[in-house]
Design a protein that fits this description.
Layout (H helix, E strand, L loop, with lengths): L1 H9 L2 H23 L18 H8 L23 H11 L1 H22 L13 E3 L3 H30 L1 H38 L9 H6 L17 H24 L8 H28 L9 H4 L2 E3 H7 L1 H9 L3 E2 L1 H19 L1
Antiparallel strand pairs: 1-2, 1-3
Helix pairs in contact: 4-5, 5-10, 6-7, 7-9, 9-10, 12-13
């Protein structure tokens, strides 16, 4: 091979030069074509081609009526090609419950603050007398406090699940919120049935004395004594207390039933049923939480002598006459009023019995 190259090329420089020039003449057009950028008129730079199927799927997703078909998978809504309810519900949840819940609860606290500043604590004319009347039995107080404690737990955990993402993640971070939300979800689902049982016990324990009667409408028209002059008559429970009772029972039942549907999604209910249940659960809980804040205020620091009824079961006779005068007359008629000394003796006996039980 070396001998041939030497014979035909190296020994004849002119022939070698002509062959090299011929090869360069053949290669130069190709090199120049590669060096010049090509213009693609069909696909201009910066413009992407549109997927011809995107418009079809957009129409399917944004349709007004569901498109159903036949599927081998058996179940609710398995024949629906694309179900956009999930995204619609997520947007609705963010734009409504998550947005307005802090406003509603904040407004309640603001109203109570203004009421306390302008009106102050609702006192008793003449002060407390020391003479007491039994208002609630021990069983009734246990039912009340059980329901109250369970409800407060559910309210706090529910608000964490509803508002935790926009409010708590910026404060504690995603990792802490993840643990808190997981614990809240498990606790919420666990205490939900306990709330329902406590609610039914509340229903049967207090329903007889919460039936509306003559005179309740007058109490309502006078705003419980805040409108007009003069005392507003009331029985064992006044109109406001009866209304609060029925709010707790009716909305509590709605919350409980919708909650059971939400934690049991595999019994044939479709997505729409779940969304409606979620709406009932969330808005019912917001209403009940807002009204319960007012109840806790009026039953503690807002009204003198009210909390004692749920602490010891007894209330001062002057408090009864100020808020429940018809019941006060019944108590005096039936000689149910006891002296301060007798009340102290009863409380002392209870304390001694509790100490003996602990020993």
């Amino acid at each position: 091979m070396v001998h041939l190259l030497q014979k035909y090329f190296f020994n004849h420089p002119a022939r070698s030069a002509s062959i090299i020039l011929l090869l360069l003449s053949l290669l130069l057009p190709q090199l120049s074509a590669a060096a010049i950028p090509q213009k693609h008129e069909d696909f201009p730079q910066g413009v992407s081609a549109v997927n011809p199927g995107s418009e079809l799927w957009r129409e399917v997703r944004q349709r007004d009526l569901p498109v159903t078909g036949i599927s081998q998978v058996k179940g609710v809504e398995t024949g629906v090609l694309i179900n956009s309810h999930g995204d619609q519900w997520a947007r609705f949840r963010i734009e409504n419950p998550v947005k307005y819940t802090p406003m509603v609860l904040g407004a309640v606290f603001l109203v109570l603050l203004l009421f306390y500043v302008l009106r102050g604590k609702v006192g008793i004319a003449g002060g407390l007398s020391g003479q007491m009347v039994k208002r609630f039995s021990e069983t009734e107080r246990i039912v009340h406090w059980t329901l109250a404690i369970v409800f407060l737990f559910l309210a706090v955990t529910g608000l964490i699940l509803l508002l935790g993402r926009p409010l708590l993640i910026p404060l504690f971070g995603k990792e802490v919120f993840s643990l808190l939300a997981s614990a809240s979800k498990e606790g919420h689902n666990l205490f939900g049935p306990i709330f329902l049982v406590s609610l039914l016990m509340m229903l049967f324990s207090f329903v007889k004395r919460n039936i509306y009667e003559k005179g309740d409408l007058t109490w309502l028209l006078k705003g419980g004594g805040f409108i007009g002059d003069g005392h507003v008559s009331g029985g064992f429970f006044n109109m406001g207390e009866k209304t609060w009772y029925w709010i707790v029972i009716l909305i509590g039942l709605a919350i409980s039933i919708s909650g059971l549907i939400l934690v049991s999604p595999n019994f044939g209910q479709g997505r729409v049923v779940m969304e409606i249940s979620h709406l009932v659960h969330v808005f019912g809980a917001i209403i009940l939480t807002a009204v319960s804040i007012g109840h806790m205020y009026m039953g503690s620091i807002g009204t003198e002598g009210s909390l004692e009824g749920m602490k010891s079961g007894y209330v001062d006779i002057n408090w009864v006459e100020a808020h429940h005068d018809r019941w006060a007359r019944e108590c005096r008629k039936n000689e149910q009023v006891i002296s301060a000394e007798e009340f102290a003796r009863l409380q002392g006996n209870k304390a001694d019995a509790a100490m003996e039980k602990e020993a």
